[in-house]
Design goal:
Length: about 190
């Protein structure tokens, strides 16, 4: 999977450039992993054991409550990192599910290996921190959208951020992600000029 390692390197260097010696150590911790469509990779109550790099496919992290309500929190697709990051980094039981929506191909790094390379290569720890900070920034922006924007504004913002997402993710999950009823989501697709 040399092309997948190349894609990982491009993503890493886009977050924060990493010298070759540090990259050589970082790339050694990744192993290939495949999952079928609609496979739960991480369940509520489990520790997240891996950081995932998505090479192919679409996944989501979602919450499911005791009243059978579901909330899609985030989507991941190539080339990006995936998994339940708070459970991974805190090494606490996950409060969320990590599920594939399509057959998926990953590289994954076990937490002890990731932690080890971050301790021995501070530039890798810096890159991870910067990546998490970007994720937190995006999450805060999304919270503002969910709390302040109309359905149409949320839909438009999603399309600005990820114009290709309508082709990647089933619409029922997009509607849930935006906090919009599925019927209203269908109306928005027909109403909003793409």
């Amino acid at each position: 999977m040399p092309e997948v390692i190349d894609a990982l390197k491009i993503l890493v260097n886009a977050i924060h450039p990493v010298p070759e010696a540090d990259w050589a150590a970082f790339k050694q911790i990744w192993q290939p992993f495949r999952a079928k469509r609609k496979e739960i990779i991480t369940s509520v109550g489990e520790k997240e054991k891996y950081l995932y790099f998505v090479a192919e496919g679409v996944q989501r992290v979602y919450y499911f409550d005791d009243q059978n309500r579901e909330a899609t929190l985030v989507f991941s697709y190539a080339p990006s990192f995936g998994g339940v990051l708070d459970a991974l980094l805190l090494q606490q039981p996950s409060r969320y599910y990590f599920e594939t929506l399509t057959p998926s191909i990953f590289l994954r790094a076990a937490f002890p290996d990731l932690q080890g390379v971050m301790h021995t290569h501070p530039i890798i720890e810096t890159m991870v921190r910067i990546g998490i900070t970007h994720s937190l920034s995006g999450l805060l922006e999304r919270l503002v959208e969910l709390q302040c924007y109309s359905s149409e504004e949320k839909f438009r913002k999603l399309l600005q951020r990820s114009p290709h997402i309508l082709q990647l993710v089933p619409h029922k999950y997009l509607a849930n992600y935006l906090g919009i009823e599925a019927t209203n989501f269908s109306k928005l697709i027909n109403k909003v000029k793409l």
